[in-house]
Amino acid sequence: MKKTRLTTKILIGLVLGIVVGLMLGGSPQIATDYIQPFGTLFLRMIKMIIVPLVLSSLVVGAASMGDVKKLGRIGGKTVVYYMATTAVAVIIGLILGNVMNPGAGLSIPVDASVQAAEAPRIADTILNIIPDNALSALVGGNMLQTIAFALFLGIGITLIGEKGKPFLNFFESMAEVMYKIVGIIMSYAPIGVFALITPVVAQNGPAVLLPLLKVILAVYIGCIIHAALVYSSAVKIFARMNPLNFFKGAAPASAVAFSTCSSAGTLPVTIKSARDNLGVSESVSSFVLPLGATINMDGTALYQGVCALFVAQIYGIELGIAQQLTIVLTATLASIGTAGVPGAGFIMLTMVLTAVGLPLEGSALIAGIDRVLDMARTSVNVTGDMAGSVVIAATENELSVPKETAEAK
Question: Does the residue 409 lie in any domain?
């Protein structure tokens, strides 16, 4: 009952934030000055524990595998699953972009230019995973490098056996402390969600969103389709879990992701929801979810497909099959090195536009509504992380589904 009440409170906070934001549409400064600080406080508390939580949980997760071969097997499954769902998400985005034609007939003056983010070479992306200074990676909050360092620590603990037990005990204790702090922070979540949504709605009221309503609808419809088809099928086929119960269990993390627009920032809630609501084991959730927050960007990839076609249609540029396949490949690979923070998807978009030769000026149109799109895509990113953890746990026989979440026999 307690979990259900928390979910309800978060959703109430979300709805109230939208209502109050619309009411303050004429004076968004009030929302920014007096309400937003409470949301900023929520984000700062979450960010405070991200690095120690990821470090401790991944070290424990990797070490608890007890077998380096098992760690490699689960890691391989996780990467393949995430990359496959990301590719499907881009394809869904492209299909919707072709069917809905969000940019057709739209004439909006573009008076801003955006510098393209240079697409990194594959070799650089791989090399940047390994930190040249582990402490700098931790202090700087570089998630991919923190994950790599934590995995090496966990593997080292496993290989030295009994001598590594005291070191492992330290991280187990640290992880438990972090989980307890997550519980404390989550009690503040409804207020935080309310305070984060209110200024967004106040500043980007319906008048601003109407000219670009079609692209917003395309992204939101795509996110719903992807979640309903891909995630429902995955948990049903691999874990024999009722999809409705899966989404109910994932709801707290999905709601927080919707308001924070940060996969990394939502990670503490994601881990808690996967374990408590979906029955994912500690070893699997500690490994799969931090990795997913870094490389699994289904919602962001779908957004790339819709927005790339949106920009092409505005400028009357026809994208052929080869160019659309380039979008699929670029968006899928770019998701590996994209940080799970607000606005990261927009940086990815400039890479995708550059890859297919589309005008970067078109991305300025997206910038105005990016926050609204970011909420949907981040929520899907996080929901996809949890679906992945359920699938991997089921294939490893480490899924202990709670009674209220299991499919009725």
Answer: no
